[in-house]
Amino acid sequence: MNRRMLLGYVILGIAFISLALTWFMFDLLYDAGEFKTIAPHFSGACRRISPAPGAEDITIHPETGIAFISSDDRRARMRGEPSQGAIYAYDLSHPSPTLVNLTIDFEQDFHPHGISLYIDESGVEKLFVVNHRAAGDCIEIFDYSEDKLIHRESLRDALMTSPNDIVAVGPRSFYVTNDHGNVSALGRTLEEYLRLARSYVLYYDGRQFQIAAQNIAYANGINLSHDGKQLFVAACVGRKIKIYDRDLDFGALTWRSDIDLDTGVDNIEVDANGDLWVAAHPQLLAFTRHARDAKNLSHSQVLKISLQENPPKIDEIFLDHGHMISGSSVAAVFGNRLLIGSVFEEHFLVCEMQ
After folding, report:
1. Can you tell me the distance from the alpha carbon of 125 to that of 118, in angstroms, rounded to the nearest whole number?
2. If you compute the radius of gyration of the chain from its CA atoms, what whole number of angstroms results?
3. Do 32 and 48 touch, CB atoms closer than 8 A?
4. To which H or E segment does residue 333 belong?
5. Beta strand ranges found along 156-239 (DSSP E)
6. pLDDT for position 1
7. What is the 3-state secondary structure (H, E, C) of 222-268?
8. pLDDT of the residue at 8
9. Is the Cα torsion angle 38, 243, 113, 119 positive or negative in sign?
10. What's the CA gap between 50 and 268, in Å, rounded?
11. Contact 93/76 with Cβ under 8 angstroms?
């Protein structure tokens, strides 16, 4: 091979690599929603409730209307400042509800993330909480009685390397999402930007943890149908909700279908009719920029998914540039009231839907 031919091959190789990189960047930006047109809308009125920094997850008792709010000042933690998270109660049945710190006497390191309220047939209530302790992630189980949370136990396991959200299915059993499959910071970054489906769902049957579902692109929110037969998992980077059939006796999961949403799905709540309410990040890279600097707003989105229709009917209920609330992570409903929380904001929204 002469020098001229060799140079030609080198130039061709460089051109091919440049073209591949250009295509990769375009595909990444397109997938992340950077080219979407955002037209804010909501039929109703919202008010801010504070202080409740980082109200990342909210779940509402279906009968009493008490909202449980998982709150943690993540920006303070990122700055290396000492902080203690909290679980707040907010009684939607009260004419003038106020925030009540239910974990003010919990003396252990507490940085709550996903939460799940479990109510057994006799009415006994338990709250399950993903806790990012400095010493290692764990699941905290509380009894809820007489307007108080009473800590019962902490559970941890080597498989639970990046827990995000949880749904309880028994007094000591639950599913929890691991939002990354990699354990190193570099591995997790590559997993996100290369959109690799490496995360998974764990099942704890009251005795041991085991992997129940795999190959999910950033497993985020998780919830259960009212009859317990189907499990819903948000694939944030995958921009979809994955539906699994659930074995009621052994907890095994079988993939059933996906609901493609073209948005970065976060937490999932189930309303009284069995419909799904999903908070999402329509522009994922905008949320990444917001995570680095609060001055960078991140769009907030709420979707309602009606599973009774085939295919499921998807309605966009709320869309905001980030001025009302930035980086929405959860949407929970009680009657005509919609509560919207976020990962970093100092407040959450209580909205009256028309």
Report:
1. 6
2. 21
3. no
4. strand 328-334
5. 163-168, 174-178, 199-204, 209-216, 219-224, 230-235
6. 59
7. EEECCCCCEEEEEECCCCEEEEEEECCCCCCEEEEEEEECCCEEEEE
8. 64
9. positive
10. 22
11. no
Tokens 């905008």, located at residue: 286
Query: Cβ distance 316 to 302 under 8 Å?
Result: yes
Tell me how crowded residue 155 is: count the other CB atoms within 10 A of its CB.
16
Looking at residue 63, its amino acid is E
Backbone phi, then psi, for 167, in 5-degree steps?
-135, 125
Provide the 8-state DSSP code for 1. -
Structure tokens at 186: 């570099």
Output the DSSP codes for 5-21: HHHHHHHHHHHHHHHHH
Ramachandran sector of residue 24 (left: φ over 0; alpha: ψ -120 to 50; beta: rest): alpha
Render the burial of 19-41: b for 16+ CB within 10 Å, e for the rest: eeeeeeeeeeeebbbeeeeeeee
Exposure string for 338-349, b = 16+ CB within 10 A, e = fewer: bbbbbbbbbbbb
- Mean pLDDT per 10-residue interval, the chain, length 354 residues: 66 72 70 83 97 97 97 95 96 96 95 98 96 96 95 97 98 97 91 92 97 98 97 97 97 97 97 97 96 96 95 97 97 97 98 96
Q: Please confirm whether the linkage preceding 40 is cis (ω < 30° from 0).
A: no
- The single-letter DSSP state of residue 74 is H
Catalytic site includes residue 113: yes
Nearest by Cα to 58 from 273, 299, 270, 297? 270
Does residue 132 contact residue 176 with C-beta atoms inside 8 Å?
A: no
- Of these residues, 41, 94, 111, 113, which one is catalytic? 113
